[in-house]
Design goal:
- There is one protein chain.
- With about 130 residues, this protein is an alpha+beta fold.
- It is built from five helices and four strands.
- A four-stranded mixed β-sheet has the order 2-1-3-4.
- The longest helix has 15 residues, at about 45-55.
- The N and C termini lie far apart (about 55 Å).
């Protein structure tokens, strides 16, 4: 509904106001302005940017740990601890498994990607051999 141009901004504002409730008048007013300015379809992107700004203010770094196998909690904690020391910031890590990595780890933090996987090493070696 928020992205549908057939709904007028007033209808969108009313719907968002109903969802916001009466507990947070400032938030309710913000949603009203967003709808009035015909930006209701961008509310998800606005929320992501807001989260990014909060993380930066709190000096928090969101990192995704991608491994070839499931990490134990101890292994993940050790990796997160090393990242926190290197970055000097609090790290919130999510974990995922990609069996195609073969081994190693890939760290994704925003647009920064550190690939220490076997697949990544093999790909870099292949590119080097092709250039030679």
């Amino acid at each position: 509904m928020l992205r549908n141009p057939q709904f007028d901004p007033a209808t969108k504002a009313s719907s968002l106001a109903d969802l916001a409730g009466d507990d947070e008048p400032l938030f309710k007013n913000f949603l009203h302005v967003v709808a009035e300015k015909e930006r209701a379809g961008e509310i998800e992107e606005i929320a992501k940017e807001f989260e990014r700004l909060i993380a930066r203010e709190e000096r928090r770094l969101d990192v995704e740990l991608i491994t070839a196998r499931e990490l134990t909690d101890e292994e993940a904690d050790a990796i997160v601890s090393q990242i926190e020391k290197a970055a000097g910031r609090k790290v919130d890590a999510t974990r995922s498994v990609d069996p195609e990595l073969v081994g190693g780890i890939v760290l994704q933090a925003g647009s920064y990607r550190a690939d220490a996987s076997v697949r990544g090493r093999l790909e870099r070696l292949r590119q080097e051999l092709v250039r030679s």
